[in-house]
Structures are given as C-alpha cells and as structure tokens.
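Justification of computing resources. Each target in the renewal requires a structure prediction run like the one illustrated here; the chain below, 243 residues long, is used simply to show the kind of job we budget for.
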Amino acid sequence: MADVITQCPVLHRDRFIIVINKPAGVLSHPNSARIDPKHTAAFEGRYDLDRRCFEGPAGKVWLIHRLDQDTSGALLAALDEKTADRCRALFEEGTIQKHYLALVRGSPAPQGTWLDHLATSRGGGGVRTQVVKGRPPNAELSYQVKAHSAEHRLSLLDIALITGKTHQIRVQATSRQHPLAGDDVYGDFSLNKRLRQSLGLRRLALHAHRLEFKHPASGYKTVIDAPVPEDLSAAFKVLGFGG
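Resulting structure tokens:
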C-alpha cells in the first residue's frame, strides 16, 4: 500500500496546499506528540505542536487552522513551510473566509451579527469557553437563516465566522438561547435526546461547508466546498431542508 498523507476525503490538492473534509470525531491534531490510538488525526504521522506540523511517511503537512473534534468539514493545510507562513498570514489578515452550517434550537432573526467577549479556560482534562459580559468584543460572526422547521423548532444557519475562538459558534449560540443540536457540552441535553430519537442525530450539528481565500501561490480566488456528511444530510431531509 502506498504511503498516504491523510485518511480523510481530499477536496483539493496541488503543489502548495491540501484541503480535506474532516469527519466528526477526528482530531485536527493530537494534543500531544503521540497520537492517541483511540482517536485518529486529520493527517498521518507524528505531530510537532510548536511548528504545527505533521511528519509522516508521505511527507510533512503544516496545519493552518483547526476544527473541533466534533465538527466536520473543510480543513486547510500547507505542503511546505513557506506556504504555511503565507496561509497563516492570510488568516491573521482575515482574508480567509470560513462558512459553517449549524442546526440550532429556536427561531433566530433572519440574519444578524453576534459580538461577544469570550474567555477560555483549561482544567480537568478539558477546555471550556464562556461569554464575559462588560468587556470589549473579541469574537464575531454573522449568519443567515437558511431554513426553519416549526414542527421541530429548529433552524439551519449559514454562518460566516469572522474570528476563530475555541468553541466560538457553540458558545455564542447557546448564550442567545439557540444551542446547537447535538452539543453535549454547551447544549440542551433534553433536545439532544429527542433528536437522537426523531432524527437519528448522534453528533454535533456543525459543519464547515466552505473555505474562500486567495491561493497563497497564485493569488487567484479559491473556493472549496465540503459536502454535507450523510448523517447530517439525512437529518436535514427529515426536517424538510433538502440535501
């Protein structure tokens, strides 16, 4: 068997970058130098936390951003260090646009912008984020409601993530009484139980469905779409949201 760079579906690959469709349950990167055999990571090989680089049998891969383990979707990496530096600069400049689909409880306004100050703490082997009132915003997203089910009291949001804080979408949604379906940390646990029975939904309903950016080598506009996973697509169809 030939050496492989990832076990995840590849959405785009050229000499400079690779974009994969990370499944829910797969880590963007291991939390230590050794990959836990119980959890696969987005790319193959040993991971250098300081350099944010995988080194595997098929070569080196530099991770550009992260998705939570429970979140699926488009994940960008670079295939050389110079390209990695350029991609990270694009993130710092805010020129890489990240779009998510999120299934939430209730009926948010048809469109809007959420601004909050988020603080993240670590302890007990986990990470938690919360909204801190009275401090300048450091987290921003905008959204549009794409579909709504009055019967199930659920809405499908298309979210443009402006900043990239840990658990940002989940925490900002919950703070507005619109927790994400399937969120077993910040969510509505009775809702999650009901949706497991009615929709067969057994995961966080959050998917990074699109990346838009200037290619770090050519400068051309690049748009990468990540197909919605079958489990989420099936739930959306039950809700009458189509594919």
